[in-house]
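Module 6 notes. Inverse folding takes a fixed backbone as the condition and produces residue identities as the prediction. Think of it as a translation problem where the source language is geometry and the target language is the twenty amino acids. Below is one complete input and output pair. Work through it position by position during the lab.
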């Protein structure tokens, strides 16, 4: 039997994000059941199940080696090494290999492109936030449309630089027809969403699509939408659309499974 996969979330008081995390863990559990590998999930803080409880359950079932994969598009959370070291103190026989973060995998960029296309097509009438002018008859071309890719934001300059790198990679691989792909952050570091939108407006964009570089819906996405809504209220001439997050899906599961198998090979 292969070592179990332990997905590790940052954790928050956000029920929507926790629910989607749970659904994704279930999806992977169904997928990896075919290879006789257990899948569990735990949070570093604030939400349940806690990492400590998930590890304790795995050890109680006889697992003393596992693959720990921080469910993150960027680098592992700062708390991750200390949290796993604490678990090894509690369970001296525990060994673990660490899976790489998910982004910017080409399949993650492709999922972002799908969310962008959905926002352009406006497929869901009750879905993403849409702020438009009264005159919707005049077509707006891709060359007049800018994209603002929005990451969470960090106090770590290297983590923020990685989001800028993703913006460039996305423009090179999926957004070359658009005016530009700018970078913004939800919090902790500038520019915020309004700053990204303002840059696009000054560049002459008639439409801006806000593209969250986030895994799951929840409070973080709501903050993105709220910032876009507040900016749009003061700039009615600008067509602003907000795409959905990457979300729980088979393509994302493919990336996680590859990271799991990769960790098994390098940890052998």
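Target side of the pair, the amino acids:
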């Amino acid at each position: 039997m292969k070592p179990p996969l332990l997905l590790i979330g940052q954790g928050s008081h956000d029920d929507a994000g926790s629910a989607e995390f749970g659904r994704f863990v279930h999806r992977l559990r169904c997928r990896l059941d075919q290879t006789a590998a257990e899948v569990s999930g735990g949070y570093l803080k604030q939400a349940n199940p806690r990492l400590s409880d998930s590890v304790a359950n795995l050890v109680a079932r006889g697992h003393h080696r596992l693959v720990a994969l921080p469910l993150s598009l960027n680098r592992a959370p700062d708390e991750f090494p200390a949290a796993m070291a604490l678990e090894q103190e509690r369970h001296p026989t525990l060994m673990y290999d660490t899976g790489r973060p998910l982004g910017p995998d080409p399949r993650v960029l492709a999922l972002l492109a799908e969310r962008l296309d959905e926002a352009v097509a406006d497929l869901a009438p009750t879905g993403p936030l849409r702020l438009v002018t009264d005159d919707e008859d005049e077509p707006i071309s891709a060359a007049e449309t800018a994209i603002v890719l929005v990451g969470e934001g960090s106090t770590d300059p290297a983590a923020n630089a990685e989001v800028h790198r993703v913006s460039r990679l996305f423009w090179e691989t999926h957004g070359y027809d658009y005016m530009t792909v700018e970078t913004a952050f939800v919090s902790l570091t500038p520019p915020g969403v309004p700053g990204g939108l303002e840059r696009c407006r000054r560049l002459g964009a008639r439409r801006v699509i806000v593209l969250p570089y986030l895994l799951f819906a929840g409070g973080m996405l709501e903050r993105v939408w709220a910032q876009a809504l507040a900016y749009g209220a003061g700039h009615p001439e600008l067509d602003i659309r907000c795409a959905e997050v990457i979300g729980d899906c088979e393509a994302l599961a493919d990336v996680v499974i590859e990271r799991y198998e990769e960790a098994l090979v390098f940890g052998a």
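Reference fact for the lab report: The first strand starts at residue 5 and ends at 9.
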